[in-house]
Structure formats: C-alpha cells, structure tokens
Design goal:
The protein is an alpha+beta fold. Helix content is about 20%, strand content about 25%. It folds into two domains: about 110 residues, Rieske Iron-sulfur Protein (3-layer Sandwich); about 190 residues, Alpha-Beta Complex (Naphthalene 1,2-dioxygenase Alpha Subunit, Chain A, domain 1), CATH 3.90.380.
C-alpha cells in the first residue's frame, strides 16, 4: 500500500486545505479503504434487533466498501459483544438472520459456537490432532456501547471512550435509553460526491446563510460556534428568539444559553445531531471516489417538537447540502483549482478534519 505525504499547517491562519488531488486520486481512495476505515469506529444500526439477552444481529462493517462480516450478540448481563461472522472451518458465513439464539451452528458442516464465540462442537473431527486450537474460536472484535447504541472497530486507531465522554457531557441530561428508533423517518441519500466532501460541508456553519435560508431563520448565525477535541468536534447552534431550544438543567456546561442543536462529528464519517425532539445520526458511507451514501437514522424522544426549530425539515436541508456538495465535486475536477484557505473564524472543524486525514494517511 503506497504512502502519501500531505501537509496541513497546524495554524489555521496559515493553513491550506487538502489539495484537489486528494479527492481525485484513486490510490488515495484505496488507501483509505485499507488504512483509514478499518481503524475507525462505526455506529452499527441495530434498530430493535438487539433488545433482549440472546439477541444476535449479523451485519457488514461498512457494506459496499470494507465489507467485513460480523455479528453482535447480547449476553444475559446485557453486555453487547462483537465477533467475526465467518465460520472457522471453511469460511462460511455463520449467521444470516437476526434473532434469538442459544447456539450458533454453521449450516455448511455443522460446526457449533456459543454466543461468546467459543467453538463447542464439530462433527467428524475425532481423529484431528491438536484440535481445537485458539483460532478455531471466533475472533472477538472491539465493541463499545453508549446507552442503546453499539460502536465497532476492526482495528482501533484511537481510544473511543473520550469521544463518548465528550458527547455525554453535553447531552447526558437526555434520557437516551428512552429514545425510540424511528425507521419510518430514517432514510438513505445517494450523493454524487467524494465522501470527504460531504464531511467538509457538514463541518462548517459558514455556508448556512448562503445555502439554508430556512435554517438560517431559526439559528443565530453570529453566535454559532465550534469546539475541537482529539477525534471529534462539536458545532453549537444557538437558537434565534422564539425558536425551540433545549431545556438545560442547572449545572449544565451550557446552562443559560439558548441551544437549538448540538452537532457532533466523529472521525472520520459519523455525525450525531441532537435536537430537543431527539437524535439524527448521519453515517457517510463511501461507495466510490465520486459517490457516497448518507444514512439518516432517527431516534425520537419528544414527537411534539419534530417540526420545530433547527431539527425541522431535515430532508430539505439535506437536499440543499447535496446540491452544493455535488457541485464542489464537479469543480474539483478543474485543472485550475488546486487548494484553498480556511476561514479562521468559521472553518476550524474542517481544518481539524483535514489534519486528521493527513496524519492518518501519512502514518
């Protein structure tokens, strides 16, 4: 796998963006598939399939891109674990459908595992010497949960606990376990642009007055601000007068402020948007160097506030973002555009993202 050398100056007042070549080079895109995303943490959308002990949920880690077959299982104590979903005998997919299981038996040759990934039985293997070995058990994959939400990494490149702590500090007052998964409101968007361009756009409120007229009416653009952390950042939307905002408890870090939305981004491709009505999780999934799929997963807490404030009409806001991002994708093919500069006041989160991309690809 080739190494790349990208440099993003740590001082945003001097820094330039990643070059257009970053978004156009197929070798860079392939390198991210091998070096970046397997080391990332990814939200796993289980819906209501992992509510009880004995629940097993098979899935692909970033389907269409990384394609690693895995499954989640919930123990009697409520712990969620993740394992390879490949039988250790001949590589058959082990679990095909979510459901309640006591044991997992491969439908190819009958190898049986418990829900903790331990091989228990294999027919016609009495004569095999030195069997079973440690590698005959299923490989456990790192998994962390926050409230009802599981996150998985194939080979973690960073500690995920501080990321969860950052989000918990801001929205821990909300009853996350009570949030209702809303499949009727969740949907996919196919965006004809490089996945990182979609993240670039998300990571700055600079474009709001120019692109989102409706959103601009409910946010105080002058008061909009951001905060940076190691592998995540936060944009805080301040409500305009009369706009729905959070009822923050006394002692909260933002108590006294009219917060309309908390926009959390987690490196490299996850967004967690908290509104007074609940949560919209946005996962940006690379498909090709010129296309990505954005999954909107909604969890509702207070349905009476769904059509109010910064969290209203998310589909309209998304379509407006798509129009801009897809035009940037076209513009980056120009021979005349090479790189740009950052607004020190408005694009700190984009600068943060570009630094992380450069550092991870250069390593």
């Amino acid at each position: 796998m080739p190494n790349f050398t990208y440099s993003v100056h740590p001082d945003i007042t001097l820094a330039e963006t990643l070059p257009a070549e970053f978004y156009r080079n197929p070798r860079v895109f392939d390198a991210m598939q091998e070096k970046l995303f397997p080391r990332s943490w990814q939200w796993i959308e289980t819906g209501e399939n992992l509510n009880q002990a004995g629940s097993v949920y098979p899935f692909q880690f970033l389907p269409g891109f990384v394609n690693e077959p895995l499954f989640l299982s919930k123990t009697e104590t409520g712990e969620v674990q993740c394992f390879s979903n490949v039988c250790t005998h001949r590589g058959n997919i082990l679990v095909h459908n979510p459901g309640q299981y006591k044991k997992l038996t491969c439908n190819y040759h009958g190898r049986r595992f418990d829900l903790q990934g331990q091989m228990e039985f294999m027919p016609e293997f009495k004569e095999a010497q030195g069997f079973p070995r440690a590698c005959d058990h299923l490989t456990e994959v790192p998994c962390q949960t926050w409230a009802q939400f599981p996150f998985v990494s194939l080979d973690p490149g960073f500690d995920f606990k501080p990321v969860l702590e950052v989000m918990q500090e801001r929205i821990g007052f909300m009853p996350l376990p009570q949030f209702r998964y809303a499949p009727e409101l969740s949907r996919d968007y196919l965006v004809n642009a490089h996945w990182a361009l979609y993240c670039d756009n998300y990571l700055e409120g600079f474009h709001i007055p120019f692109v989102h007229a409706g959103l601009n009416q409910v946010l105080d653009y002058g008061a909009y601000y951001s905060e940076l952390f190691d592998y995540c950042n936060l944009q805080v939307g301040i409500a305009d007068s009369g706009t729905e905002c959070f009822d923050l408890p006394a002692g909260h870090i933002d108590y006294g402020k009219r917060i309309a939305a908390y926009y959390f981004w987690v490196f490299p491709n996850m967004m967690f948007n908290f509104y007074p009505w609940g949560l919209s999780v946005n996962i940006v999934k690379p498909l090709s160097i010129k296309q990505c799929k954005v999954r909107f997963i909604l969890y509702v807490y207070d349905e009476s506030k769904l059509d109010q404030g910064a969290g209203a009409d998310l589909d309209k806001v998304e379509r407006e973002d798509e129009f801009v991002v897809e035009n940037v994708q076209k513009g980056l093919q120009s021979r005349f555009y090479q790189t740009g500069r950052f607004s020190p006041k408005r694009e700190a989160c984009v600068h943060h993202f570009h630094q992380l991309l450069a550092n991870n690809l250069n390593s």
